[in-house]
Amino acid sequence: MIASSAVVLALALSVSAGVTQRKRGGGQLVTSCTVPNTAALTFDDGPYMYMTEIVDMLKANDAKGTFFVNGHNWGCIWEETNMQNIRYARDNGMQIASHTWHHKDLNTLTLDQLRSEMSSTNDAICKILGTKPAFMRPPFGNYNDDVLSVVGEMHQTAVTWNLDSGDSMGAEVSAQNQACDDVIAQHPQGIISLQHEVYEPSVHQVLPSYISKMKEAGYKLVTVAECLGMEPYFDGECPVSKRGDDSYAC
């Protein structure tokens, strides 16, 4: 199958350098690394069955990654295996961050709905790891002033990307690899990539290529927090168990 014109266009747009950091509505948005010669490989939509495999692959290549997890999307964050995988990733040097609870388009939600989507996942991560995530990623990369206002309320930083693999849009492996080549050819000071841990070709065919290409180009593969010179988590009490509440239901 050949990647559609929409996929090709999206990949081309992802190559264009954007604003690295900006603040709107009280919250900070980051689109690329600020520490020179660093790259952050990021994985959305988990926790999923490939998480530990990705962790092991990264460790074997002296690399780190960041997992933006949902509360209930491809699976339920409260499943024992998923909680174990999240802890495994964190304990092996990876970063865990929020991708909201239900993976909704945040631009369509009210302020109260935004707070629920973000706080539910933050609190779940806190209960699993004992610490609150300092970073989040809006689903689809969609945000507006209300979204960033709530991000600010949560004391978090929103993260998008400047390299989109296109895996979620059905891009062929060759197109995903070309997207990486195109960005590296421009050699930005830093790269934040977008992949999804739920797509098998992205894990087993594309990820090894991205690791190799970025290292050969001189990038150090680190977490999002490290590539920004920031802390991945912040202090704060974890909430009393709310797993029976509607906002926490899977």
From TrEMBL:
It is found in: Cell membrane. Gene3D superfamilies: Glycoside hydrolase/deacetylase. GO terms for biological process: carbohydrate metabolic process; cell wall organization. GO terms for molecular function: hydrolase activity, acting on carbon-nitrogen (but not peptide) bonds; metal ion binding. The keyword Cell membrane applies. SUPFAM superfamilies: Glycoside hydrolase/deacetylase (SSF88713). Residues 1-17 form the signal peptide. Keywords: Carbohydrate metabolism, Cell membrane, Cell wall biogenesis/degradation, Glycoprotein, GPI-anchor, Hydrolase, Lipoprotein, Membrane, Metal-binding, Signal. One of its GO terms (cellular component) is plasma membrane. It comes from the Eukaryota. It is a lipid-anchor; GPI-anchor. Its cofactor is Co(2+). Pfam families: Polysacc_deac_1 (PF01522). Residues 37-222 form the NodB homology domain. InterPro entries: Glyco_hydro/deAcase_b/a-brl (IPR011330), NODB_dom (IPR002509). This is Carbohydrate esterase family 4 protein. It comes from Crepidotus variabilis.
